[in-house]
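Quick question, first post here. What does this chain look like in 3D?
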Amino acid sequence: MNKLIWVLIAAFTIVAAPVKIQAQEHPEHPKKDDTKKSESTLSPEALSEEIEKYVQNESKTEGGYFLFYDEKTKSELKLTLDKVHKDKLSKVAEGLYFDCSDFKSADGKTYDLDFFMKETDSGLEVTQQLLHKVDGKARYSWYEEEGVWKQQQK
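> Answer (accepted):
Ran it through. C-alpha cells below.
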C-alpha cells in the first residue's frame, strides 16, 4: 500500500504546478492553458463509462453489490453505484486519471469513492480506490506542497 501511495505522489509531482498550499476536496483539475500533455485525450463520458463497467463487472459475482473494504472500520461494504462525477475528472499524469463516484449501501449511507485509472495497451485499468467520504463527511482532503499532491487525513 505504501508503494502505491509513493507512486501516486510521484505521479502528482509530474503535473502539479507550484501554488499556495491549501486543503482541497480533490486534486486540482488541469488548466486549459497547460501544455497539451496535461489535456485529457479521453472524454469524461468515456472515463465514466469505464468506471461503470468496472463496477458492473465486480458486482456480477457479488449479488449485484460492489464490495469495498473499509480499512478504518475494518468492515466490508456492500455498495450500489449511484453516480460517476464527470465534473471531478482529472488527468493527474500522462496516462493516469482520477474521478470520484457516489455509492449507496443497503442501510442508506452514502459513500464517495475516489478511483484512479491508468491507460494500458488493453484500455483503461482501475489501479486504486479510496474511500473519500461517508455521508458527506470527508476522511481526507488534498493539498499541494512544493508541487506534490498529498492527502491530509481528517
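The longest helix spans residues 44-60.
Strands lie at 66-70, 75-84, 90-93, 96-105, 110-120, 123-134, 137-138, 140-145, 148-153.
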